[in-house]
Amino acid sequence: MRHFIAAVVCCVAGNCIAVILAHAAELPEYREHHDLSYYLDGDGQRRPVATTTDWQIRHRHILDHIQRVMGRLPGEMSRVPLDVKVLDESRNGDIIRRKISFQSDARDRVTAWLLLPAGAGEAKRPAVLCLHQTIDAGKDEPVGLRGSQNMHYAIELARRGYVTLSPDYPSLGEHTYDFAEHPEYVSGTMKAVWDNIRAVDLLTSLAEVAPERIGVIGHSLGGHNAMFTAAFEPRLRVIVSSCGFTSFRKDDLPSWTGPRYMPRIATQFASDADKVPFDFHEIVASFAPRPFLAVAATRDNDFDVSGVRDVIDSAEPVYRLFDKPQHLQSLYPDSPHDFPSEARQQAYEFLDCYLNPAP
Known about the structure:
- The chain is of the alpha/beta class.
- It has helices spanning 52-70, 153-159, 188-205, 221-232, 264-267, 280-287, 305-321, 341-355; strands at residues 2-4, 7-12, 15-20, 24-26, 38-40, 46-48, 85-92, 95-105, 108-116, 125-131, 163-167, 209-219, 238-242, 292-295, 328-331.
- The strands form four sheets. The chain has a nine-stranded mixed beta sheet, sandwiched between helices. Strands 1-4 form a two-stranded antiparallel ribbon.
- Strand 5 (38-40) and strand 6 (46-48) form a beta hairpin.
- The longest helix has 19 residues, at 52-70.
- It is globular.
- The termini are far apart.
- Mean pLDDT is 93; it is low at 1-24.
């Protein structure tokens, strides 16, 4: 398998951009995604992951294999000016609720809710990117305007002192999006990842936000959307995923193959977990040493809880390698596919521990 990895930086009129060059290099194939104890060297030989430097080699391979399925992460040339526009503003108690839109790339704008807690202008606050589940209401659900109360984590976190940003996923909410008209994205997943990266750009630009204290939370679609984004976006310092994943071997793999997700799982990898070149074990390990909490309902009919336990068990040695085993946490509420109150409260406490919201 060959891939393209070389890049140079060109500066034009003071603006620096990364340019990808067509330079081929070997990308070793990993058949045991649950085994994170080794990396493959240039000759395809196994080498033990004994240090964090060793792990960075495996980490780079993981990100390259993810992009074989999702498509390449857009480069700096796609990072156009955000051109933020305020569409509406109101108050909900002490919370300012502001509907905004921003330019994600040259061809598309994203609509989002920005919630600012009382006193947000007095000192910089931590922020949380709040990603919604598969629901036509899109961003309206996390902010409490529609949908299940158990999914209102954006408004609940704002009341806790966080600035929150809730964008629409492509094709849901107000984000009308025809995937067929955008061949620049191989998958809806990568389009969503890029939208979320631009959302982080937006958060870091706000005077109310402490840019070094940004986390992400989501349920179901939002849960794995949070994880996929965090794999590529290190500015997301804390990650919480509720009912968002299981191992591919214990999942309904064809359900991942629609245009909203990753069509290449079907077209190039035959919807076969043995052929897909990554799995969630590697994604979770790629977060290390950043704090990650997996909330996995024991009666979830969408994502098998035993597969979540498998993933956490595989990733634990990598967190130990960084001497941060406490940063990898899992929670198993006795619940169907949901984000019940007690689990949400524990998730918020997890965010509090690392992002330190104002009282």
